[in-house]
Write a structure and sequence with these properties.
The structure holds two protein chains of two kinds. Chain A is mainly α. Chain A contains four helices and three strands; from the N terminus they run ααααβββ. A three-stranded antiparallel sheet of chain A has the order 2-1-3, with no helix packed on it. Chain A is elongated. The model of chain A has no long low-confidence stretch (mean pLDDT 89). By secondary structure, chain B is an alpha+beta fold. Chain B is 22% helix and 27% strand. Chain B has a four-stranded antiparallel sheet. The longest helix of chain B is centred in the C-terminal third of the chain and has 18 residues. Chain B is globular, with a radius of gyration of 16 Å. The chains are: A mainly alpha, B alpha+beta. At the A-B interface, α3, α4, β1 and β3 of A face α2 and β7 of B.
């Protein structure tokens, strides 16, 4: 929740700087050393590209915020981070559930939700069968 | 419906089916139940994760039989999806939840403690399969054992 709040605060802050800048690149300084992090923005279309990227990112994250199912979320996460990374994360999650299943730590709540908090009925050992 | 399919095979009696229904009702919320002409049908909604859609499943059993069919009726799961065969389904589209030769399930086992949790687990791996194209729940495919 804290990460989410920070993320949205960041988007709001950067987008407000963009709208105040009136199309002119604003300056972002390195807080530690004397360095302008945005010096390349004045070259070519760099600043314009940054604004487009921020708009797209803000729009995707807003969409993510509104989604309530895995299917919708996965679709936009795949768009943002690519299919390979998204599938790796999904696979890792499946692996963790499978480990809990093997170790007898998987349970199912009355709405069917699987969990490792031992809430509800313990999931017994089974072997799925049939052609794949 | 007094027909006994296998004389030597144990099979459900009416009271055993009622007991199963009571056990399911004790833990899960049934959307509907019907007992007609020796056939029991239970309808309930489950979702494998908090962010999953709700699936409506149907449990079908009959007096004098010892098999129980579990079907995903909404959104309906069929044998092929986008040209790919959905893993671990029987020909009638019921879920293949256990390997009979391993004796992981017998007809007297509580549906609430076996078939329904396994159906939720099946749906979990089904959703992963839809996203990644891989079935990560292991199982037996023909004679081949795939571990998870």
């Amino acid at each position: 929740m804290a990460i989410r709040f920070t993320l949205f605060s960041f988007f709001e802050y950067v987008n407000s700087l963009i709208s105040q800048s009136g199309g002119v690149p604003f300056v972002v300084k390195n807080p530690v050393v004397d360095e302008v992090l945005t010096e390349k923005w004045s070259e070519g279309n760099n600043y314009k590209d940054f604004v487009s990227m921020m708009n797209a990112l803000t729009s995707d994250v807003k969409a993510l915020r509104g989604f309530s199912t895995n299917t919708d979320t996965n679709k936009i996460v795949k768009k943002m981070f690519g299919e390979t990374i998204t599938n790796a994360v999904i696979t890792d999650y499946a692996r963790r559930i499978s480990e809990a299943r093997v170790n007898g730590n998987l349970a199912v709540k009355s709405n069917g939700v699987l969990n490792t908090d031992k809430a509800g009925i313990s999931v017994k050992k089974n072997t799925f069968y049939g052609d794949i | 419906m007094g027909y006994v399919r296998f004389n030597r095979t144990k099979h459900y009696t009416f009271s055993e089916l009622l007991k199963q229904i009571r056990e399911v009702e004790r833990f899960f919320k049934l959307e509907n139940k019907s007992i007609k002409r020796g056939k029991v049908e239970l309808i309930l909604k489950i979702k494998p994760t908090e962010l999953s859609i709700e699936y409506t499943i149907k449990i079908v059993a009959r007096i004098n039989y010892n098999k129980v069919g579990i079907f995903v009726i909404s959104p309906k799961v069929e044998r092929y999806e986008n040209g790919k065969k959905v893993p671990h389904l029987y020909l009638d589209d019921s879920l293949c939840l256990y390997y009979p030769r391993y004796h992981e399930w017998k007809y007297t086992d509580s549906w609430a403690e076996t078939l329904i949790p396994w159906a939720s687990l099946w749906l979990f791996y089904y959703e992963i399969w839809q996203e990644t194209g891989e079935w990560l729940g292991g199982g037996i495919h023909g004679d081949k054992v795939i571990s998870f």
